[in-house]
C-alpha cells in the first residue's frame, strides 16, 4: 500500500484538518443525516461529515432550521456515527440549545457527544457566543464556528442574501474569525459572503476556513447533500454546483415501478418463490 493510500484511509481528526490547511490540501465536507447516505459519503472519501441542522429543511420539510430539536439532532447524529469510519463527524448545536448561556451550551454539547459519540459540534455566531464557545472547548469538546450567513438568525437578517458586503459587517466578521481562533475553535464555516473577504479571513487565521458560497480562496468547501445531488430541486442559488440529478433518476424509477405493478409485469416468475 503506498503512503498516499494509507494517508487517505487514516481517520480524519481536528488536528489533521489543521495540517491539511498547512499543506494547502483542500478540505471536503458534506452534510449527511442518516446511516445509509453517511456510509456512501464516508466511503467516497469525504473528509468531514456535517450532521447539519439543515436536516430541519431537507429531512423534516421545515422552512427554516429553527424548529429542529436537540433530541432530533442526536437521533440523526447517532445514525451517521454508525456509518462514518474515516470522516470527522461534526454536529450542529440546534437553535435554542446554546444561546441562553454557557451552561446551557455545555449541557447541550455534552448530550451530543455522550449520546451520539460524535467528534465535534458546530455553533453559529462570533463575539455574542464567545463565553459559550470557550466553555464547551474547556470541557474538551472541539468546536467548529459558523460566520457570515447564519441560518439560525434568519428572522433577524430577514433574507438569505449575501452577507458582509458592507464594511462594518465585513470588519466584524474578520474580528469574529480571529476571536474564534483565539478561543480554540478548530475550523470555521463561512457562509455566503464575498469571495475576496472570505479569502482574506482564510489568510488571516491558522485554522481552516470552510466556505459555502464564499468562493475558492478558502481552505475547503461544504454543501448540503440533498442540494448537490439534485434531490432538493427547488433550491438553486448561484454557489450550488449540482453533481447529479437524483430527483429525476428517482422519479423515472418510481414511475417505472408503478407502471410495472399496474401492468403485472412485476414481479416476474424469476422474482417469485
Ligand atoms: O446545517 C447545515 O447544513 C450547515 C451548512 C450549510 C454549512 O450549517
Structural features, described:
Helix 3 crosses helix 5, helix 5 runs parallel beside helix 6 (102-116) and helix 9 packs parallel to helix 10 (195-204). The chain has helices at 3-9, 14-23, 35-44, 55-58, 70-83, 102-116, 130-138, 154-157, 167-183, 195-204, 225-228, 246-262, and strands at 27-31, 48-51, 88-92, 120-124, 143-148, 187-191, 209-212, 220-223. Helix 3 (35-44) links the parallel strand 1 and strand 2 (48-51). An eight-stranded parallel beta barrel has the order 1-2-3-4-5-6-7-8, surrounded by seven helices. It has 273 residues and is an alpha/beta fold. The chain has twelve helices and eight strands. The structure holds 3-methyl-2-oxobutanoic acid. Residues 31, 50, 52-54, 92, 189, 212, 222, 224 line the site of 3-methyl-2-oxobutanoic acid.
